[in-house]
Amino acid sequence: MPELPEVETTRRGLLPHVVGRRIRDVVVREPRLRWPVPRDLARRLGGESVRDIHRRGKYLLFEVGDGHLLVHLGMSGSLTLVPRDTPPRRHDHVDLALEGESTLRLNDPRRFGAVLWVKRPETHVLLKSLGVEPFDAAFGGELLQRLANGRRVPVKLFLMNARMVSGIGNIYANEALFAAGVHPSRPSGRLSRERWDRLAAAIRQTLERAIAAGGSTLRDFVGGDGRPGYFQNEYAVYGRAGEPCPTCGTAIRGARHAGRATFYCGACQR
DNA sequence: AGAACCACCTGGCAGC
DNA sequence: TGCTGCCAGGTGGTTC
Questions:
Q1: pLDDT reported for residue A122
Q2: What's the whole-number mean pLDDT along residues A1-15?
Q3: In chain A, which segments carry CATH 3.20.190.10?
Q4: A209 touches strand B (CB under 7 A)
Q5: For B3, which residue's CA is nearest its C1'?
Q6: Is 90 exceeded by the pLDDT of residue A264?
Q7: What are the DSSP calls for A167-221, one per residue?
Q8: How far is the CA of A111 from the C1' of C5 (A)?
């Protein structure tokens, strides 16, 4: 599910309802996520106020107490506010009961997500090697071309590599490459500066449009306010193998890169 | 160093 | 209806 737009949608949905609130209680029903949920989470968070919520790549960071609560949604996670005393449903693994009437609840069927305590995000092993943020000032064709220099990995996999660029997953890699007219298999070290510029702009524009639409809801993603996203209705290529390209009408092709489904127009993308 | 795989999980769906 | 196999939004770790 969640790539940068879905994580950002979650963050924005939660901000007005969570920041400034005190955490009354922490309930961990299932600690077996990607890594075990820390046993002392309740002690660290109980009674503390959430000062802010940040995003780094696909990670959410809740600034609280003398550190940060790190949440990753994995493939199937969602984080929503529910009224206090709402009975837990299947896969509701972690609750943060807030002061007042609401509870912040993590649901994650596949349990690829994570809930961890991080003292200093800038040095944490999961965060320190993350690549550039697509909305950072440093992001652009020049940087991407420099990072890709000498690499033969397909540009689609380069974009999905979180050590290069953070936040882009399978859906938005497919969509941004289409928007830029770049073939997903093209070796990343062999794109001209002009094409990197176009791709960088397409990445930003695609992510911006997706955030504006509240992200994508393919199965059951909901943002922090509990509402689904609508960007899945605007996909040009993702999941559309065999359908006509919205630009030229040629049938969209399906392929695979590193086991992940790829969709592209063989005529528009070179 | 870089690239190709595998692993971790559950649920939904197509096909028989 | 029910079984089997395949697929899915991520990413750290292992192997070559």
A1: 87
A2: 93
A3: 4-123
A4: no
A5: A153
A6: yes
A7: S--HHHHHHHHHHHT--TTSBGGG--HHHHHHHHHHHHHHHHHHHHTT---SSS-
A8: 22
Q: Which residues make up the CATH 1.10.8.50 domain(s) of chain A? A: 141-264
CATH topology (fold) of A4-123: N-terminal domain of MutM-like DNA repair proteins (3.20.190)
Phi first, then psi: give them for residue A64, nearest 5 degrees: -155, 140
What is the structure's pLDDT at A224?
A: 72
**pLDDT tens digits, A24-77:** 999 999 999 999 999 999 999 999 999 999 999 999 999 999 999 999 999 999
CATH class held by domain A141-264:
mainly alpha
pLDDT digits (tens, 9 = 90+) for A230-248: 999 999 999 999 999 999 9
b or e along A86-112 (b: 16 or more beta carbons within 10 Å of the residue's beta carbon)?
eeeeebbbbbbbbeeebbbbbbbbebe
Instruction: Work out if A5's Cβ lies within 7 angstroms of strand C.
Output: no
A228 nearest nucleotide via C1' and CA: C9
d(C-alpha A8, C-alpha A205), whole Å? 15
For the CA of A10 and the C1' of C4, the distance in angstroms is 37
